[in-house]
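Long-time lurker, first post. I've been practising inverse folding by hand and with some scripts of my own, and I keep getting stuck on stretches where the structure tokens seem ambiguous. Below is the full token string for one chain I'm working on. Before anyone asks, I'm not after the true native sequence, just a reasonable design that respects the backbone. If someone could post their per-position residues I'd love to compare against what I wrote down in my notebook.
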């Protein structure tokens, strides 16, 4: 197990209070990492801190505000971090809007969070990695394939183009930045999760879940903790010669 150890390594998890982000924090902490969690939702941040401190003791995690749509806020967040070994970007902007109703303002807002935000964050975080390190960006299967509109019942909007275009950009940014930072000992990879609907979505849209389930090879949705192993792997020495890759965590969705 020692090659997966994160002992003595500090990781900033942006979006670490989220549905997929919190289990990543738990997984990294279990491997001995020191955690800085940043999010724009102060209530979620406080809840995540409480969960992690209940498991690991008071003061075991630091929290910071960040708005991925605001460059000054991103830079201020990095300024408050000690030297880093790892960065996780687990936020997303999405219009959640039907194609015909999508405005250019909605589109720009998503791009600002997903594309500009990830670029600004990663460039600043690299400066905080004097001894090298690793970054993992959350992309999506919808950065590689498009959603099938037939999967979306009623007036539920299909996963929108601003989101998918941003995720494709995030995957490509991982490759570009891996090239740029490779000789400085900083690895950059992305993971591309498939369907990980929270319980509220499962309860509200059973037909949608039936449709998505059919499109996975494994015949089930992803469980909340099932992206954490990929992230721990890509931040740890277990992946020391892996960079510029996008790892699907999608139950086989994109392999059909
Ligand atoms: N859940 C899925 O099915 C799924 C599938 C594929 C990819 N993803 C990706 O995984 C990542 C995590 O998704 P999730 O399901 O945990 O979503 P989530 O909404 O539960 O978590 C995202 C977190 O980011 C925070 N956040 C959102 N916008 C922000 C901003 N502008 N600045 C700072 N923080 C912000 C939110 O407060 C939240 O805590 C996202 O990048 C998402 O696109 C999710
Ligand atoms: O790429 C993504 O973000 C995911 O595939 C989601 O859009 C799922 O469809 C959703 O988790 C179901 O609720």
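-- Answer (accepted) --
I ran through it position by position. Result:
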């Amino acid at each position: 197990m020692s090659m997966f150890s994160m002992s003595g390594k500090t990781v900033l998890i942006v979006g670490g209070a989220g549905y997929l982000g919190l289990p990543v924090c738990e997984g990294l902490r279990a491997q001995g990492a020191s955690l800085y969690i940043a999010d724009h939702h102060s209530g979620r941040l406080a809840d995540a801190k409480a969960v992690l401190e209940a498991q690991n003791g008071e003061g075991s995690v630091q929290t910071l505000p960040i708005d991925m749509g605001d460059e000054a806020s991103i830079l201020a967040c990095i300024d408050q971090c000690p030297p880093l070994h790892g960065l996780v970007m687990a936020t997303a902007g999405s219009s959640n809007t039907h194609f015909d109703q999508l405005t250019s303002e909605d589109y720009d807002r998503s791009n600002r969070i997903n594309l500009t935000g990830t670029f600004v964050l990663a460039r600043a975080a690299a400066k905080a990695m004097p001894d090298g390190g690793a970054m993992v960006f959350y992309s999506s299967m919808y950065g590689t394939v498009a959603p099938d509109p037939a999967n979306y019942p009623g007036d539920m909007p299909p996963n929108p183009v601003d989101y998918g275009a941003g995720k494709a950009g995030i995957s490509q940014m991982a490759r570009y930045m891996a090239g740029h930072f490779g000789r400085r000992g900083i690895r950059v990879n992305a993971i591309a999760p498939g369907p990980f609907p929270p319980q509220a979505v499962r309860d509200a849209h059973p037909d949608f879940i039936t449709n998505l389930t059919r499109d996975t090879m494994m015949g089930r949705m992803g469980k909340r903790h099932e992206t954490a192993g990929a992230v721990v792997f890509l931040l740890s020495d277990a992946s020391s010669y892996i960079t510029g890759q996008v790892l699907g965590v999608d139950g086989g969705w994109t392999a059909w």
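A couple of notes from the structure itself: The chain has eight helices and seven strands. The two ends are 32 Å apart (CA to CA). Happy to go over any region you disagree with.
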